[in-house]
Structure formats: structure tokens, C-alpha cells
Write a structure and sequence with these properties.
The structure holds 2 protein chains of 2 kinds. By secondary structure, chain A is mostly beta strands. In chain A, 0% of the residues lie in helices and 48% in strands. In chain A, the strands form 2 sheets. In chain A, strands 2, 4, 5, 6, 9, 10 and 11 form a 7-stranded mixed sheet that branches. In chain B, strand 4 and strand 5 form a beta hairpin. The chains are: A mainly beta, B mainly beta.
């Protein structure tokens, strides 16, 4: 079974530039997550989709971050314009279940963003 | 919002010694999950605990969920160098609304180093 695919693995940009990350979850997984992991910290949920609808984006900085999940399958996370504090690993995850018990989350390898 | 605290932040042990990390939530959880992240890697699911007072074992790893479903612990007996990594707990809370869903909040992790 193929895992969660993410691209690019690494990205270096200058502040105020834009960047986009792509995620393809495991086939059939209902729920897709974008987490931000700053070095030395735990993953922080940015946005959670259940099928193609957003169920939680309370910690997404909406003035600069946006995300969509087209047709309930793959997803794109965009940052525009980037700030220095956005330097982090952006982890995409998916889970088979939704509702109250999401079950195990399967993470992709992550996209490491460096903002100069 | 929900907070999940983990202690200690770092633990250095000699190979063969035991290791324990503790997790505390500000709110009652529907379940708790544990993940391991190797250096440079992504979080990998270890286990999920659902019931109050639940104890589960995986070889040298013992996981406990508190009676009040607000705290949890992971104990590793006789550590090995392969145990090196960061251990995260993640507490799940159920949100009921237009679309009901479970939200997973990660602790900041405990970094385990094992000296041979």
C-alpha cells in the first residue's frame, strides 16, 4: 500500500515570496491533515479536512495560509507571503476514519521550508 | 483551547536503563495516541488508548491511560539504541457541531537519547 506522498521535500525561499506544498493521501482515507512542525516542537494542526470539507482551520493564519482539498483526494497548502517564522516542516497526514475517533494518522515525509 | 503537556523534554539514558515520559491534557480526552519520530523522520503511530485506566504493552513498551482520561504515560524497559527518537503523545477530543470530528493535539515531545 502506497503511503502519503508529499512534494517538494525541501524548499528555500525569501521572505514575502510564495510557496505551495502538495499532498496525496492514502487511497480511501477520509480525513486529511496539515500540521506545521517547528524544530524542537510537536506538530501543530493547521487544517483538517473530512472528505473535501474543512472541519477545523482554527490555527491556520488565514491572512497568509490557504489550503484546499480538491474532489476529496489530494490537497495543496499555500503560503503567501512567507515570513521568517514560517520556517518549519509541513507534515501532511491522513486517516481512514473520520468523526469522533480518527484512528491512526499516517504521515508523509514532510516538506521542509526555509524562509530567508 | 486544548493543551497537551509532556515531560520531560529531554531524557538521556545508558543502554539498558528504563525510560518514562508523561503526558497531561487540560481537558478530558476521548482517546490518546502515541507516536515515535526518529531524527530526520516523520511521526509513526505506536498505539491508541481509549478506555479509562487502560494499559497496553508492546514488547518492552508499556502504555497507560489515566482513570480520568486526562493523563498518560509511556514506559520503556531496558532501553536499546534503536529506541532513540522523540516520543509524542497526542490527545484526541471530540467536537460536536455541524460536522462532528475528532481533533488530535500533540504534546511537545520527549527526546530520548541512549548511550551505548
Amino acid at each position: 500500500e502506497a503511503g502519503v506522498a508529499q512534494s517538494p521535500r525541501y524548499k528555500i525561499i525569501e521572505k514575502r515570496q510564495s510557496v505551495a506544498f502538495w499532498c496525496n493521501p492514502i487511497s480511501g482515507h477520509a480525513t486529511l491533515y496539515w500540521y506545521q512542525q517547528i524544530l524542537g516542537q510537536g506538530p501543530k494542526l493547521l487544517i483538517q479536512f473530512q472528505n473535501n470539507g474543512v472541519v477545523d482551520d482554527s490555527q491556520l493564519p488565514k491572512d497568509r495560509f490557504s489550503a484546499e482539498r480538491l474532489k476529496g483526494v489530494d490537497s495543496t497548502l499555500k503560503i503567501q507571503p512567507a515570513k521568517l517564522e514560517d520556517s518549519a516542516v509541513y507534515l501532511c497526514a491522513s486517516s481512514q476514519k473520520g468523526f469522533a475517533n480518527t484512528g491512526e494518522l499516517f504521515f508523509g515525509e514532510g516538506s521542509r521550508l526555509t524562509v530567508l | 483551547g486544548q493543551q497537551v503537556m509532556q515531560i520531560p523534554q529531554y531524557q538521556h539514558v545508558q543502554e539498558g536503563e528504563d525510560f518514562t515520559t508523561y503526558c497531561n491534557s487540560s481537558t478530558t480526552l476521548s482517546n490518546i495516541q502515541w507516536y515515535k519520530q526518529r531524527p530526520g523522520g516523520h511521526p509513526v503511530f505506536l498505539i491508541q488508548l481509549v478506555k479509562s485506566g487502560e494499559v497496553k504493552k508492546q514488547k518492552r513498551l508499556t502504555f497507560q491511560f489515566g482513570e480520568a482520561k486526562k493523563n498518560s504515560s509511556l514506559h520503556i524497559t531496558a532501553t536499546q539504541t534503536t529506541d532513540v527518537g522523540t516520543y509524542f503523545c497526542a490527545g484526541q477530543v471530540f467536537y460536536a457541531g455541524g460536522t462532528s470530528y475528532g481533533k488530535l493535539t500533540f504534546g511537545q515531545g520527549t527526546i530520548l537519547t541512549v548511550h551505548p
